[in-house]
């Protein structure tokens, strides 16, 4: 994962949240853009001015031009149109060039090979973030078509299933699948309801994960977010599959960010997928599920049954 682009009218709130709450490096290149750094990449998390209050694009970095050409060929063979982004759009994202297509759920999926780097020192409250060959972090999405979504990422981008989780959360039986592209345990997680498939979320993603360099980075960010009054979605806890210790906080746009520490690094030669029966070993107590929030999710879940979900086929036609 290379970058995430969101759109919001709350840019000042985003700048404060990212810098003072999460501890990221924040730039304001223009009055209409908040650009966040966590490493040498000039842009990792970008929020531009707009009404969506949601994620509008996710960028994925491929190893080289050959990998890019292969991905575009696989997409084209499935009837998926791929276009090159404009130079202005590339500057916003901090990349030399990029290509895009409508991915599952119509979330714009973008591909690039070369990021623009910065040698300017980072100004962060956090000591650092784990990126490198493993990428920026991971995203988790909800879907009514989990089998189709898994097939797409596996067939086009060679994703591998790390493991699965079955759990019951807020009265819903949920299934989770965790896909990896490299040594990071997962870069893409898929959540779906069992039985009747509904989607209770307004936003395109459930959360973005960033991996902190130290446990102290997580605990200090947790304390800063609580002190500042940001809505904690899930208190500190630990997942059973990747063993990451983390907490979740709601962003000014409504989706969540998970700050975590010390997940398992996958060894491709020895890894075997497993199924777990709980999303957390301990902790991760939900704190933002008020009655109003529950009713909102219930209404959105029912409404999702009235419209088909946009899917991208994984198998070549």
Task: Label this structure with key terms.
317 residues; alpha+beta; 2,3-Dihydroxybiphenyl 1,2-Dioxygenase, domain 1; 10-stranded mixed sheet; 8-stranded mixed sheet; 6 helices; 23% helix; globular
Structure description:
The protein has 317 residues and is of the alpha+beta class. The protein has two domains: 3-112, 2,3-Dihydroxybiphenyl 1,2-Dioxygenase, domain 1, CATH 3.10.180; 132-304, 2,3-Dihydroxybiphenyl 1,2-Dioxygenase, domain 1 (Roll), CATH 3.10.180. It has helices spanning 11-22, 65-77, 87-93, 146-157, 215-228, 291-304, and strands spanning 3-8, 25-30, 33-37, 45-49, 54-61, 83-84, 99-102, 108-112, 137-142, 160-169, 172-180, 188-193, 207-212, 232-238, 245-250, 256-261, 275-276, 282-283.
């Amino acid at each position: 994962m290379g970058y995430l682009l969101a759109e919001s009218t709350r840019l000042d709130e985003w700048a404060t949240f990212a810098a003072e709450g999460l501890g990221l490096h924040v730039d304001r290149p223009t009055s209409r853009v908040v650009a966040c750094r966590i490493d040498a990449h000039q842009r990792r998390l970008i929020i531009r001015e707009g009404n969506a209050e949601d994620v509008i694009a996710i960028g994925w970095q491929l190893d080289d031009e050959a990998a890019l050409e292969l991905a575009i060929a696989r997409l084209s063979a499935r009837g998926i149109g791929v276009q090159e982004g404009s130079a202005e759009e590339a500057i916003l994202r901090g990349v030399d060039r990029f290509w895009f297509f409508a991915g599952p759920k119509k979330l714009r999926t973008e591909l690039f090979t070369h990021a623009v780097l910065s040698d300017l020192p980072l100004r962060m409250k956090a000591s650092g973030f784990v990126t490198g060959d493993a990428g920026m972090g991971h995203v988790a999405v909800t879907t009514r078509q989990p089998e189709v979504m898994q097939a797409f990422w596996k067939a086009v981008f060679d994703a591998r299933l790390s493991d699965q989780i079955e759990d019951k959360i807020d009265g819903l039986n949920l299934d989770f699948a965790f896909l990896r592209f490299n040594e990071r345990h997962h870069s893409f997680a898929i959540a779906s309801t069992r039985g009747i498939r509904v989607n209770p979320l307004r936003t395109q993603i459930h959360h973005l994960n960033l991996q902190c360099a130290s446990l102290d980075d997580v605990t200090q960010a947790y304390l800063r977010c609580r002190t500042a009054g940001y809505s904690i979605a899930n208190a500190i806890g630990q997942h059973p599959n990747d063993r990451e210790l983390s907490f979740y906080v709601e962003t000014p746009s409504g989706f969540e960010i998970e700050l975590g520490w010390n997940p398992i690094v996958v060894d491709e030669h020895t890894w075997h997928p497993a199924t777990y029966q709980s999303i957390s070993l301990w902790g991760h107590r939900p704190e933002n599920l008020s009655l109003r929030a529950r009713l909102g999710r219930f209404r959105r879940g029912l409404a999702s049954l009235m419209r088909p979900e946009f899917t991208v086929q994984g198998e070549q036609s």
